[in-house]
Every structure is written in structure tokens, then in C-alpha cells.
Amino acid sequence: MKTANLHILLFVAFSAILAAGIQAADSLPVPPQPIFHFEAADDIPVIEYNLDHHMLAQRDPTPLLRVYGSGRVQVHFPVYMKKAGDYEMQISRAELNELLRMLDNNGIMAFDAKALRQEKQQLETAHRTTTGTSFHISDATDTVIKIRLNQYQRTASSPRVNGFSKQFSWRNLSSDARRFPGSHTIMQAANAAAILEALCDHPALRKLP
Q1: 49 with 170: CB under 8 angstroms?
Q2: Which of helix, strand or coil describes residue 107?
Q3: pTM recorded for the entire structure
Q4: What digits encode the pLDDT tens for the residues 83-134?
Q5: Where are the beta strands (DSSP E) in the chain?
Q6: What pLDDT, on the 0 to 100 scale, is given for residue 28?
Q7: 50 and 144 Cβ atoms separated by less than 8 Å
Q8: Bridge partners, residue 6, by sequence
Q9: What gap in Å lies between CA 47 and CA 192, rounded to an integer?
Q10: C-alpha to C-alpha distance for 11 and 17, rounded to whole angstroms
Q11: How far apart are the C-alpha atoms of 113 and 178, rounded to whole Å?
Q12: Which of 5, 52, 112, 161 lies in the 20 to 30 Å Cα band around 79?
């Protein structure tokens, strides 16, 4: 399999953001970068991404996306989807590090579900006070992102966290991003999910027999 170019993927998905970042890089110092340690193996995924649709009678337990330390990328589309089947491709270690860095920059490693629930409650209260209406979604979907690393450091001067494991899980993330665009945490999480969604549609993916 050919090595997928993750930077091309990101350029297509977020060209305006990347262009701005490239221009800024010429004039701004490089900020402290996170450090990730993981084994180049195919046993336990470094990254998992899934969408859990509550209204489905039979949920598919296989995650939508799994990325291993070896760079192996597996994508699984359930039978009810148009592209149903299993797909694979390969990315480099540098590209996997870049993917982890983007998830980290979008708050996944430091996600605090309790704090965000409190923030959302305040936003919903303000909305009801202003409009006199409430909001409800009957067809709930959970966005789930799991990160597993041998070791993680937020920056080179931060404490090392051995056996790092983090799970981001949020119900109706896409809907909340539309409703609360002023929430930095929600918008960051939506960005992280969009990056992984784009990876699931990468043109280098090849369907398995």
C-alpha cells in the first residue's frame, strides 16, 4: 500500500486554516509541542473514532476508525452505509504524530466532560431565557474518540504521563457545534471529529476483500 499523505488531506479539509498557519509560521516562534510515545505495533490502536447512533436497532461494535502505532489505518463502514465494508491504508510515523498533535491542540487529551456539561447547561439556560424555547434531539448520536499512548507530555517541560489513556465522548456534538458556536471547547471538539471524519474518506484507502 502507498503511504497516504496526511498533509494533503488536511489541506483539502482545512485549506484556509492551514494557509493562515503557514503564513504565521514565518513571523511567529514555534509554540511548545506535545511529545507522544507509542510502539510501532498493530495490536492496540493509538487512536479510535466512532459514532454511536442510539436509534439503530443493531449497533455495529466495530469502531469507524482505528489508527495503530505502525501507521496502519483501518476504516470500517457498517452495512447500513453506502460504502459498507473494511478499508485500509498506511501513514508514516511523522504523519501519525501530526494527527495526534492536532487532536491535542483541539483539546482531546485534556477534555473535561464535567466542565463542558456545566458550560452547556449555562448556555442552554441563557438560550431559554432569551428565546423562551427549549431544544431536544430524539435521534441521539455519541461521538467517541479514544487515545492510548505509552507516554504523553503536553510540552517538554510538563510531567510525563505513562500509560496515557483518554476517552472523549459527547452526545450530539455536531448539533451542539451549530447551536453554540461561541463555545471554544465544543468547537475544538468538533474540529477534532472533522479531522478524523476526513481521514475516513481519504482517497488512499483501499477496500479489503
Answers
A1: no
A2: coil
A3: 0.83
A4: 899 999 999 999 999 999 999 999 999 999 999 999 999 998 887 787 766 6
A5: 35-37, 47-53, 65-67, 72-77, 85-90, 141-153, 161-171, 206-207
A6: 53
A7: yes
A8: none
A9: 12
A10: 8
A11: 19
A12: 5
